[in-house]
Amino acid sequence: MDGEQTAQMFPAVTPLQQMIASCTGAILTSLMVTPLDVVKIRLQVQNNPYPKRRCFLYCNGLMDHLYFCDEGSHKAWYKKPGRFSGTLDAFIKIIRNEGIKSLWSGLPPTLVMAVPATVIYFTCYDQLSSFMKSKVENDAYVPIFAGTVARLGAVTVISPLELIRTKMQSRALSYKELHLFVRRKLAEDGWISLWRGWSSTVMRDVPFSAMYWYNFEMFKKWLCKNSDKYEPTFGINFAAGAISGSIASIVTLPFDVVKTQKQTKLWRHESARDVALRASTWDIMKQIVAKHGISGLFAGLIPRLIKVAPACAIMVSTYEFGKAFFIKQNLKKQEHHTSGYLDLK
């Protein structure tokens, strides 16, 4: 048995190991980032209480989810009483009065979609990237293509599931009622109706992904070179993830503004649903510019950076750390196997 055959038996990292690493990173990212969004929502509700049937965006650091106010409920986590003077004061009072678990209010239902989407995305990116690098001489632009295809795949798989989850929460449907709703929807509008909102998500997420991975690989190499490191450390991956995530979030912010506006209009006004759906991304952009100027397309830049930069940094550095761990384990297995084979000879 030669070295090539041994390497095939014990690859650097397997798809299953990539899935475990990305799943771990996804859960850790959501645990670290969600409290920031929970506090932000609590501060917003304090100043402007959400009316019944109002929907708002909830971010767990992995995905944005539409969350509906419970009709007639005064016990919902976002309606709990409390007077906060700012972000830090809100953190302290929520932990002291409600317990630390309240910082992750509303998180479990969103993870059902966010974690699988992240696992699909990161695993597909790595598999595509490795395959393409083995086929081309100049691999500088491989991250752009691999990032684009991986994000397209993840969005396409998750979009109908997220649509169903949102509908289920918005109308408090039972599983039987949900089944009837989906059947009626398919009969009336066809399968394509389950991917409504897909295009606006793709227009934001695909350019973000392409820029993010290209910049991440570039900054990672640059930081390794300037710190005299042969392999990237956790800190290098963290810094490269934060910088590349920040750049991508700034460039794609107009599409994020449009997507947010389109989603909230679509679900807040069921009667105006068809009007909201007919309005294209470019039509909404023109409306925003006409009303608020070019700066309207970059509304919420600082909050988005505060949310995206740490989320990207934590996710990718944890993922790369997980892969590095598995690579070491695989190398140990390979060395053990090789030494055992030589002993037999």
Structural summary, described in words:
- The protein is mostly helical.
- The protein contains twelve helices and two strands.
- It has helices spanning 3-9, 15-47, 87-98, 107-133, 142-171, 175-189, 198-226, 234-251, 253-268, 273-278, 281-292, 301-344, and strands at residues 55-59, 64-68.
- The longest helix has 44 residues, at 301-344.
- It is globular and about 65 Å long.
Mean pLDDT: 82
Number of strands: 2
The global form is globular
Rg over CA atoms: 23 Å
Give the helix level as a range of percent.
over 70%
Strand content: under 5%
Largest sheet: 2 strands, antiparallel
Per DSSP, the total helix count is 12
Strand line-up in the sheet with most strands:
1-2
**Structural class computed from helices and strand pairing:** mainly alpha
- Note poorly predicted spans: 1-10, 267-277
Distance separating the two termini:
11 Å
Secondary-structure element order, N to C: HHEEHHHHHHHHHH
Itemize the secondary structure elements and their pairings.
Layout: H1 3-9, H2 15-47, E1 55-59, E2 64-68, H3 87-98, H4 107-133, H5 142-171, H6 175-189, H7 198-226, H8 234-251, H9 253-268, H10 273-278, H11 281-292, H12 301-344
Antiparallel strand pairs: 1-2
Helix pairs in contact: 2-4, 2-12, 4-5, 5-7, 7-8, 7-9, 8-12
